[in-house]
Write a structure and sequence with these properties.
Shape: globular
Strand order of the largest sheet: 3-2-4-1-5-6
Number of helices: 14
Distance between the termini: 9 Å
Number of strands: 6
Radius of gyration: 19 Å
Structural class: alpha/beta
Largest sheet: 6 strands, parallel
Order of helices and strands: EHEHEHEHHHHHHEHHHHEH
CATH superfamily of the largest domain: P-loop containing nucleotide triphosphate hydrolases
CATH topology of the largest domain: Rossmann fold
CATH architecture of the largest domain: 3-Layer(aba) Sandwich
Strand content: 5-15%
Number of domains: 2
Length: 307
């Protein structure tokens, strides 16, 4: 035990579950600042489609790694790990607590543990990719890998479907590139991690996802996506909410069809997020309306560390 221990409170969970509001509540109670681990909220051009915190929310508590990059700037998981740890070193000079929030499991793991842990195989996703290979051939797998992880695409044997499928499985389930996980960089952290997982019954979560899609459209998602259409080839824009509208602009689907695709793909993404997070033994699960219980849990863990 350290004399003056520092605590990183991690708030994880699927998209639309209420992580932003909970992070504000907990950070305010702990006099802490917030770091985002949502890899798409990094980009200033993608405010609406990534459901960035509002200006009012950002003014309540200092935030870091929100809209600090352009989609044209090269950035990856390794750089984020470096930057986040450096920022935590600064924040822990001012407070014993910091809050890390997001739904990108691989980015959360990089901060807490480093990049030395490969995710477990996801049998259902692997079977889905094998079925795609059986029906459409290796070409479609190559295209997906090139979009999700161009670094590994340029290294892998493109005639080996098994290696491509494994890489795709990791990319899709983790939300990050497979190539970053192969670096085997063990990490020793100077802080204690308190993991909080937020969850809702599936029907309630899906209702929130549907409402969020409608809200984003009201806020101008269509116009935001249209402005980003010339840059659709960038990896940052291979993101739910944008790629479906790009198909609409191409004339492939109607606007109503594109919106339904966004809702459906967001539900699938939320399911993959929960599959990832459920495997993390460090997360203690709560409903998003249990802020008092969560704060009590955090304080109890702090007391156990201090004993």
């Amino acid at each position: 035990m350290t004399i003056d221990p520092h605590f990183l409170v991690v708030i994880a969970g699927p998209t639309s579950v209420g992580k932003t509001s909970m992070a504000l509540e907990i950070a305010g109670s702990l006099s802490a600042e917030i770091l985002s681990a949502d890899s798409r909220q990094f980009y200033k051009e993608m405010r609406i489609g990534t459901a960035c915190p509002s200006m009012a929310q950002l003014s309540q508590v200092p935030h870091h790694f929100i809209r600090h990059l352009s989609i044209h700037e090269p950035y990856n998981l390794g750089l984020y790990e470096r930057d986040a740890i450096a920022k935590l070193d600064q924040l822990f000079l001012k407070s014993r607590f910091a809050v890390l929030v997001g739904g990108s499991g691989l980015y959360l793991r990089a901060v807490c543990h480093g990049l030395d842990v490969m995710p477990d195989p996801d049998e259902s996703l692997r079977n889905e990719l094998k079925l795609l290979y059986d029906h459409s051939g290796i070409g479609i797998l190559r295209e997906k890998l090139k979009a999700l992880d161009p670094v590994y695409y340029n290294k892998v044997d493109l005639n080996n479907p098994f290696r491509i499928i494994r890489a795709l499985e990791v990319c899709i389930s983790s939300g990050g590139p497979y190539s970053e996980l192969r670096k085997n960089k063990p990490a020793q952290r100077k802080f204690f991690v308190t993991g909080i997982g937020l969850d809702l019954p599936r029907e309630d979560l899906y209702k929130r996802i549907n409402r969020r899609t409608d809200t984003m459209m009201e806020e101008g998602l269509l116009e935001e996506a249209r402005a980003l259409l010339p840059y659709r080839h960038l990896n940052a824009l291979n993101t739910v909410g944008y790629k479906e509208l790009f198909e609409h602009f191409d004339g492939k689907v109607s606007l109503s069809e594109a919106l339904e695709m966004i809702r459906q793909h967001t539900r699938h993404y939320a399911k993959r997020q929960m599959t990832w997070f459920r495997k993390d033994p460090l997360l203690q699960w709560f409903r998003p309306d249990k802020g008092g219980d969560i704060l009590k849990f955090i304080r109890q863990k702090e007391m156990r560390v201090r004993r």
